Amino acid sequence: MMRRRSLLLAAAGSAAVPASARAQGQWPTRPITLVAPLAAGSSVDIVARILAEGWAARLGQPVVVENRPAANGTLALGQVARAAPDGYTVTITGQTAIAFNPHLYANLPYDPLRDFAPVTRLVAVSNALVVPRASRFRSVAEVIAAARAAPGRLTHSSGGVGTTHHISGAMMAQMTGIEVTHVPYRGAPQGIIAVTTGEVDFAFFNISTLLSGIRSGELRALAVTSAGRSPFLPDVPTMQEGGVAGYEMSTWIGVSTVARTPPAVITRMYEATHAMMQDEAVRQRLVQIGFDLVTLTPPDEMVALHRAEFERWGPILRATGARVD
What SS3 string covers the chain? Predict the structure, then answer.
């Protein structure tokens, strides 16, 4: 009798636990969708695919990468913000999503500080200023001088309005008092092709997406946007060394999920990411591509980082005059 009563009580207790709570302990039980809000071949896409492989191996479920490149990722991020907070929809985020778009777009379909639950940072990356192989420009100073001589004549490509590529060019123009014409493309790969073929005069793109072109000689790197020289391009000066005092543009790429996702699920995401980043093969792969490794930031610290980045970049972007209405 006592044993039967105990079993009945245990069953009743199990039934009293909400289904959502029981699901947390089982997560994941089905495929996870990882949204890459920029184009295939971009740095965001590269990181998404490496993360998908790492999570699939450690969580035991497929992780499907979906590229949704439109309006600098704002539409995709708006869709993620409205997804169910169950851990089955995650997205790559970074300074563009959290700190740039809110100050560039008049009508943003998501709130960067309210709609997402950050998991961690993954890598950092800087940009490089490049010109086509046949370009007459051999230094940042020559680009600036040519722009001063013919305001608005020089063109530079980007992977879209509000990307770090766009903002890097806008910052250079604002800080040196020159006028150049921004030509946005659908994604970084198309913008890189434009500068490689000479369709535009110069461009700023993530080093990780430029290394092959620089190493092959199709592109000439004039400067990097980080505060110090890049280990991937040690012979290339910084923008500051090139004569633009105070110039620095480095960015980080991370992963977030939907706000109100159960903390236990977010913890599992972080643990899977941490385990992946301890794998030396993964670390070497990221470094060879051109990413800087960073110390993983726990979810609670990421909340503070998101807010700090949002507040830091507002004045900088307003100074460039960049805006999307």
Answer: CHHHHHHHHHHHHHHHCCHHHHHHHHCCCCCEEEEECCCCCCHHHHHHHHHHHHHHHHHCCCEEEEECCCHHHHHHHHHHHCCCCCCCEEEEEEHHHHHHHHHHECCCCCCCCCCEEEEEEEEEEEEEEEEECCCCCCCHHHHHHHHHHCCCCCEEEECCCCCHHHHHHHHHHHHHCCCCEEEECCCHHHHHHHHHCCCCCEEEEEHHHHHHHHHHCCEEEEEECCCCCCCCCCCCCECCCCCCCCCCCEEEEEEEEECCCCHHHHHHHHHHHHHHHCCHHHHHHHHHHCCEECCCCCHHHHHHHHHHHHHHHHHHHHHHCCCEC
Average pLDDT of adjacent 10-residue blocks, the chain of 325 residues: 40 41 72 94 92 98 94 91 98 92 91 97 95 98 98 96 90 95 93 98 95 96 95 96 94 96 98 97 93 92 94 86 76
Taking the complete model, does pTM exceed 0.90, yes or no?
no
By the 8 A CB rule, do 60 and 27 touch?
A: no
Residue 131's CB is within 10 A of a number of other CB atoms, namely 23
Residues 6+ apart with CB under 8 A from 253: 43, 44, 47, 92, 93, 94, 121, 122, 123, 124, 125, 291
CA distance 69 to 75: 8
Alpha carbon distance 319, 316 (integer Å): 5
